[in-house]
Predict the 3D structure of the following.
Amino acid sequence: MSSSQLMRKLTALGIRARPARNTTLIELSAELPAVVLSRLLGLHINRAEKWTKEAGSARAAYAAELSRRRLRGIAPKP
């Protein structure tokens, strides 16, 4: 069953899945760095970063900074 078929069946039963999905994504985004969210759910990293920023996660900036440091060859601070 495709996701669109499932959505139609749920809608026919009066179940609105989209708000629950969005709420769950916001909650996960607040708890997980974007890269983990991306790998866990199969989201594109750009989309995962947008969800993380939308959730107001302070970890988003931290994880991005660590990634930049590694790319520049600067060891992360303990």
